[in-house]
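Weekly sync, protein design subgroup
Attendees: M.S., D.O., the rotation student, P.L. (late)

Item 1: inverse folding check
M.S. brought a backbone from last month's batch and wanted to see whether the design step gives back something sensible before we order anything. D.O. pointed out we never logged the input encoding, so this time it goes straight into the notes. Structure tokens as presented (293 positions):
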């Protein structure tokens, strides 16, 4: 498990996460509201430029997966971190309870339908990872998935499911997908604080859900499920990033820097024209000049 100056944890196949020891809050990367906005705007501008190069090259795609407990700040992170990116080159998909059609297919099917095209950024707000999280906390959900199993799933079932995810992501990576998996890690106390704040804010009353309060009762089970899942699905090419989330603004800055760093490693460049194509462009330019005479 590597811990860098940005204070997030990067988990790959050679490291092991102990979620209880992972920080939920670290020293602020910003000194004031103005400083926070300045840092975020700088990275937003970089992300916009990288997205343009990604689209121009049209050979690769980026898939960003956000996971986290209820109220962890996934929606806000997506909104603020990606605010500078051209909407035409970015697709956000929030996955809710599977539909009847979803359940007629394998557990990776619906996310495959939503993968970004080459040249685009795709963002999954929750994902196929729910099939190794909520289903592990509530195994009865699997009964609705029409799986060819008759008994309660045992350890091998989950090991196979983790491996299916790893194999799937490695396949996508070979096809040119840069996959960034972010787990926003918050404390139980912080979740309680955010849930209570919704009652005091008229603009957030619509967010109150009985399900959030019910699932809070399974906090320890979810923490265990996340820890096991992250440890079994992290790989060298598709690592997990565990981001301290008790301070939303700090989390957004950390996430924006993770994305900038991953884009840098992609070594994207604007396409270079061969001599023949360049000659065609010169002829087009000349024809335009001639028509205007």
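Designed sequence read out in the meeting:
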């Amino acid at each position: 498990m590597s811990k860098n100056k940005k204070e997030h944890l990067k988990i790959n196949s050679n490291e092991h996460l102990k979620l209880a020891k992972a920080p939920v809050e670290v020293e602020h990367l910003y000194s004031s509201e103005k400083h926070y906005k300045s840092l975020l705007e700088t990275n937003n501008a970089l992300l916009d430029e990288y997205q343009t190069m990604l689209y121009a090259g049209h050979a690769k795609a980026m898939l960003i997966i956000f996971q986290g407990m209820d109220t962890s700040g996934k929606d806000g992170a997506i909104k603020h971190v990606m605010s500078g990116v051209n909407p035409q080159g970015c697709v956000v998909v929030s996955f809710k309870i599977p539909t009847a059609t979803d359940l007629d297919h394998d557990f990776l099917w619906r996310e495959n339908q939503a993968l970004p095209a080459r040249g685009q950024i795709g963002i999954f707000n929750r994902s196929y990872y729910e099939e190794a999280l909520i289903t592990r906390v509530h195994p009865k959900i699997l009964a609705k998935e029409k799986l060819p199993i008759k008994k309660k799933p045992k350890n091998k079932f989950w090991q196979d499911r983790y491996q299916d995810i790893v194999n799937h992501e490695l396949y996508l990576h070979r096809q040119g997908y840069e996959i960034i998996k972010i787990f926003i890690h918050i404390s139980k106390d912080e979740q309680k604080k955010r849930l209570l704040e919704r009652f005091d804010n008229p603009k957030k009353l619509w967010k109150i859900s009985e399900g959030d309060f019910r699932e809070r009762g399974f906090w320890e089970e979810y923490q265990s499920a996340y820890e096991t899942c992250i440890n079994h699905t992290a790989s060298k090419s598709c690592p997990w990033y565990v981001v301290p989330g008790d301070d939303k603004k700090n989390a957004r800055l950390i996430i924006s820097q993770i994305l900038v760093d991953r884009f840098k490693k992609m070594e994207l460049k604007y396409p270079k024209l061969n001599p023949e194509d360049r000659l065609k462009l010169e002829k087009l330019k000349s024809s335009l000049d001639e028509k205007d005479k």
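Discussion: Strands lie at 2-3, 9-11, 61-68, 90-94, 121-125, 177-185, 240-244. The chain has one domain: 2-291.
Action: P.L. to compare against the previous round before Friday.
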